[in-house]
Amino acid sequence: LTDLAVKAMAGKSKSSGKREQKEISSLEHLPIHRHKKQLLQAVAENPFLIVTGETGSGKTTQLPQYLYQAGFGKHGMIGVTQPRRVAAITVAQRVSEEMNCILGKEVGYQVRFDDCTSKSTVIKYMTDGCLLRELLADHGLSQYSTIILDEAHERSLSTDVLFGLLKNMFKQKKTQDRKVPLKVVIMSATLDLDKLSEFFENCPIVSVAGRTYPVTEVHCDLIGPKDTESSLFVKEVVKVTLDVHMNEEAGDILVFLTGQSEIERACDLLFQKAEAIDYRYDVQDHSVEGLIILPLYGSMPTDQQRRIFQPPPPGIRKCVVATNIAATSLTVSGIRYVVDSGFVKQLNHNPRVGLDILEVVPISKSEAMQRAGRAGRTSAGKCYRIYSKEFWRKCMPDHMVPEIQRTSLTTVILTLKCLAVHNVISTNFPYLDCPEERHILEALKQLYQLCGCDHRWGYVTRLGQFMVELPLPPGLTRALLKAAALGCEDLLLPVAAMLSVENVFIRPGHPEKQKVAERRHREFASQTGGCNDFTTLLNIFKQCKSSSASPANWSRDHWIHWRAMKTAFSVETQLSEVLSKLKQLKDFPVEEFDGSKSELLRRCLCSGYFTNVARRSVGKTFCTMDGHGSVVHIHPSSALYEKETQLDWIIFHEVLVTSKVYIRTLCPIKYEWVKDLLPKLHEIDVHELSSVAREEQTEDEMARWEKREIVKQEAGKMAEEALKKLEKRNDEKSVSDARARYLQRKQERSKD
DNA sequence: GAGCACTGC
């Protein structure tokens, strides 16, 4: 938890410094204090309540204390959820200080890998994912008197699921075994409040003033509705940033860009204005005419992040060039100017091609307002937007599409079914924003394929109940359970852990160092035969864990991210604990293995990844067998890159869509291993899986055929769209190749 | 011959 601690400290030093100057009585000057009576009365009289207020209103720290003082904690804990772990920890720290008690006693927190609560805990801060886990174990949330969902406007996947479940609990009166009915408070910035209120039985809304300063918004008109090239906005951002630096009064600048490469390019350009210094190879302070330039993104080493929070020397201006991480996760103090690129990198799931695509898209108006707000935390500020008013009107949606409408829903559907919500279609389950039906159907199909739900009507299976206990993507869960049944989970646990954490391979910016790192990485592959990326991950895990020197030093010497390795070790421990509990159950499956030992790992992987089977097609390309028939390429980071022609059938962990459609982390398999599983990919009619849900059992054959045909047509359209996107990025040669492949595939299909 | 935002269990 070192890294979390660093971030927690960064936030803490700021707030505790403030607190030292003021007495605890200053809490009474918080904007929320005036609403204390009104809030307590509203909670007492209603099952649901919405509290809205900007940053600095004190709602997160004060409302739970008010409720506690008013006796709401007598019949159960007051649970407060946060979308992020650091937030849950820091807020709990702060409230325990305010209440003058030891953290973990009356006030505690729970996040993954760290439960800091006790029997005496009455106010519990936690991540929303943790509460969802608790709900799986205790459907009535009997430990709690009150649930507060904080930061609801962020619409995290878990918060959205909790919305529906808590509303259901109220509707179904599942709270009958309670002494006192459960109270639910939703805390949100001012977004769609009427809709939220309507959703929660027309509950009252209490508005609390914030404590922020005015931010002047300036449109620079450098980007219009027609500008979509990402190379464009980096230049424009740099231009505006330099303008701000030259012409504006003292005050630090926060620049919002889309990702690491754009940030590095922008920093390079900023430096070029003075002299050619490559900041990446030298961590000493550099300044461009009184400007310190600091990149900030998630995968950056923590020791470099520390400098972000330090104030600049007198007379020097600090400029932080950051990803969206600075919008919510990290607070940089002293910011007076924000430069907004207007774009964000977002992972979107497309059910029609079954691919996750990471794409650069315009932000929403509410996200732009959130970014601007970062300039008004300590004094009045200014926000420079590089895009025009027309871009704002035409290209930016009012609100971000919530995560539940953008991601694969397999895990969500499994969770709901395990909570006795068999009917997952919107006509039954209350989604605040309903995912498209085809998202739900695709999730049902995948769940069925992994044996998590039943063929008839999609009821959850025993295996599905085991699966929900493991915090892993469904395919990987299935593979791990297979391994456990065969008694070889030690082989798969480290692989599952390594696949759960961010990429462990360090890719240095310096070309020479990059070669050294690459050589080191290739050794890991060749040590275990050089033809299985999963085994390579297992190899790294084992070596790092058993390294005689400190594992941290070992990681540095081998160009491996130590931070990610530490997380992988924690994940492996947790998965191992969950698995051994499951194995103690009487009906946990036990199977015999009849193949050779060298096949064991791959055979287990097949049981979960047979939905990710591909077969070699023309040249170095592969064709997926999941029904989409997408053409994919092996990513150059794979040990099997440039060994394509030696391969026939393979399974892969993930797809990346960048300049081509790449598959990453893969291994060869034999057709016999998946032969019996493959029909499962096509045999099921997804509408049958959900027919009970939609109460359409009587629906006649014709209508179903029609629907199936529409789905097929859409899949075809989507393939064309995906290709069009690639054409833009590729050169003419590869475009014509792609087109040829596409036409060939189309012809082959029509023959069938 | 690539280059991947951010969370969470």
UniProtKB/TrEMBL annotation:
Residue ranges of the region described as Disordered: 9-28, 725-752
Record keywords, A-Z: ATP-binding, Helicase, Hydrolase, Nucleotide-binding
Q: Where is the Helicase C-terminal domain?
A: 241-420
The UniProt record lists the EC number as 3.6.4.13
| Broadest EC class assigned to this enzyme | hydrolase
UniProt catalytic activity? ATP + H2O = ADP + phosphate + H(+)
Return any one Pfam family short name: HA2_C
| Xref: InterPro entries | DEAD-box_helicase_OB_fold (IPR011709), DEAD/DEAH_box_helicase_dom (IPR011545), DNA/RNA_helicase_DEAH_CS (IPR002464), Helicase-assoc_dom (IPR007502), Helicase_ATP-bd (IPR014001), Helicase_C-like (IPR001650), P-loop_NTPase (IPR027417)
Question: Which regions are flagged for Basic and acidic residues bias?
Answer: 17-26
Q: Name one GO molecular function term.
A: ATP binding
| The Helicase ATP-binding domain, residue ranges | 40-209
Which domain of life does this protein belong to?
A: Eukaryota
Q: Which Gene3D superfamilies match?
A: 1.20.120.1080, P-loop containing nucleotide triphosphate hydrolases
* Family (UniProt): Belongs to the DEAD box helicase family. DEAH subfamily.
Designated name of the protein = RNA helicase
Task: Report the source organism.
Answer: Latimeria chalumnae
Gene name in the database record: DHX40
